[in-house]
Amino acid sequence: MDATDLKILAALEGNGRISFTELGEKIGLSKTPCWTRVKELEASGVIEGYSARLSPQELDLGIRALVHVVVGFDRYQAFEDAIIQHRSVRCCHAVTGEYDYILEVLAPDISALDELLRLELSRLPGVSRFNTSITTRMIKEAGSYCSMLPP
Questions:
Q1: Same domain for 12 and 70
Q2: In this structure, are 129 and 83 located in the same domain?
Q3: Are 89 and 128 contained in the same domain?
C-alpha cells in the first residue's frame, strides 16, 4: 500500500458514495486507474464493504447503553453464538479486565431497555453478572482509521 492508496482510503472513509471521477480528481488520478486501485483494495480485504450511516433517533432507538458482561469461562462460545443472533446488540467486544465482554445495545426507551436487560440479556448462556451504563451523548463516533496510520 502506498501514499495514493492511503489517499483513496481516506477519501472513501469520508464519503463511500464518491464517484470514481470525483475520487480521481481529489487524489490526482484519472478515473480508470482510480477504479483499478479501489478494486485491488477491495480484493485484498482492506476495504471490507460500504454502508450508510443511519440515525438511531430517527429509527426510534434513542437509548444507547454499554453493557459490561461477565460470562462463565466454559460458556463463552454459547454466549458469543447467542450475541451474534441477538437483534438488539449492535456490537460486542471481547475485552480484558474485570469484564469479559462489552456490548452496545439500542432501545426505544428506558422501559424497553429494562426489559431487554432483565428478560433477554441476563438470560443469555453463561451470563453471571453485568453492569450497564446509559450513554448521555456521543462525543466521537466512527473515527478515521487512516488518521491512525503513521504518515
A1: no
A2: yes
A3: yes
94 and 129 in a single domain? The answer is yes
For the whole model, what pTM was predicted? 0.83
Q: How far is CA 115 from CA 8, 108, 122, 123, in A?
A: 44, 11, 10, 12
Task: Please state, in angstroms and rounded to a whole number, the distance separating the CA atoms of residues 145 and 78.
Answer: 31
What's the rounded Cα separation, in Å, for the pair 82 and 135?
24
Cα R_g (the chain), whole angstroms? 20
69 contacts 99 by C-beta, under 8 angstroms: yes
Domain count, the chain: 2
pLDDT digits (tens, 9 = 90+) for 65-83: 999 999 999 999 999 999 9
The CB-side HSE value for 77 (13 A sphere, CA atoms) comes to: 1
